[in-house]
């Protein structure tokens, strides 16, 4: 059942991606108009309108802002940290495989923040969870790239552990809990992008792990006009990420992978 859900999530997301959907609707409308179907103007206007809205308005911010603000960072860093769980999604497997150097994407803070925490807390263990979220996996897993990066940054091998089979956030929680087996009273931090934290906390709680959120990789700030400095491809990518997170929250709630539609602190 998990394999079916994983395959469907990948298959259905491609046409549902706002950028792809807008282009497909515009093309459909133009084809219908060319064939004399006047009602084709509606899908054409909808597709072109969505793209125009993303060009002229900060549509991504109302989507991402509530997600990022749902779980604020703790006011003070815990005095003692037993471990840090880092979710995959910040590394580029195929580029690393092609060039031989660990490659990171826009969520690089997921990989750098844990190293800083490790240096301040020599008692902490570092656990990375992530296999491959691709329908056609390459030779390297996300965990392979993380191991290479952190080893190059000087993290001792005996302080790191890697969960290599997860393909999504639900599997991250279940597999990592099985690997780590945290003891009552231990303090573990969960490091992932702030906009991904609500879904992550929901599934970790459902799995039975009361873990402390440690969000990174914020995409919204307090300057209302900052979006004017961002290019259209960046705004489109962030809008698609926000849509994906809200769809993921809804799907996980319907599938029983989280107890709340919008998990809260």
TrEMBL record:
One of its GO terms (cellular component) is plasma membrane. The chain crosses the membrane at residues 12-34, 41-59. Gene3D superfamilies: HUPs (3.40.50.620). Keywords: Membrane, Transmembrane, Transmembrane helix. It holds the Pfam family DUF218. InterPro entries: Cell_Envelope_Assoc, DUF218, Rossmann-like_a/b/a_fold. Residues 82-248 form the DUF218 domain. GO terms for biological process: Gram-negative-bacterium-type cell wall biogenesis; peptidoglycan metabolic process. This is YdcF family protein. It comes from Roseicella aquatilis. The lineage of its organism: Bacteria, Pseudomonadati, Pseudomonadota, Alphaproteobacteria, Acetobacterales.
